Amino acid sequence: MSSQQPDDENLLALCRVIAGRDLAGVGRLLDSSPELARASTDAQRSTVEYLISQGADPNSFDNSGVCALHRAVRTRSAAAVSALLDGGADVRLQNKAGSTPLHLAVQNTGRSDSGSAAAKDQQLQIVRLLLQRGAKPTDTDFKGKAVGDAATNHGLRALLARHPTVP
Questions:
Q1: pLDDT of 54-104, one tens digit each?
Q2: Residue 2, domain member (yes or no)
Q3: Burial, 67: exposed, middle or buried (Cβ in 10 Å; 0-12, 13-18, 19+)?
Q4: What is the DSSP secondary-structure string of the chain?
């Protein structure tokens, strides 16, 4: 087996934790197996690219008022975020609460700033990607909360403060 492909044992373990809805277990497996994490990333990007090539609208909202880019940001999938943006997703599209993808990207998804190292790395990649693609730290949600005010850690606030705000 190639050193770049996950072995069968890791794939089976991943299937078991997914079937058991053990999100912490998924994170642990992806953290412990770079090959497995890489395969998962490749699959996410390919899936998004395929769906868009078949006519899926990357800016359509579901019944909850959320689009695919919002979900990809919240699940910390930089590969899916990149594929959605490449496929025409609007980097500043607001969800039903008025939050942009950047609002969601700068917030923690775990309790008490918890989360795996891989999730935090994905978060930073996503924030940088969104900023590069035109997201604005000055955007506000429907309650008037700016992205910078939504940022939950000092590092992200500093990154946003360094980003030029061009209207």
A1: 888 999 988 888 888 998 898 888 988 999 999 999 999 999 999 999 999
A2: no
A3: buried
A4: --TTS--HHHHHHHHHHHHTT-HHHHHHHHHH-HHHHHHHHHHHHHHHHHHHHTT--TT-B-TTS-BHHHHHHHTT-HHHHHHHHHTT--TT---TTS--HHHHHTS-SSGGG---HHHHHHHHHHHHHHHHTT--TT-B-TT--BHHHH--SHHHHHHHHHS----
CATH number of the domain to which 63 belongs: 1.25.40.20
The crossing angle, in degrees rounded to 10, of helices 34-53 and 8-19 is: 70
pTM, two decimal places: 0.75
Residue 167 lies in a domain: no
End-to-end CA distance of the chain: 51
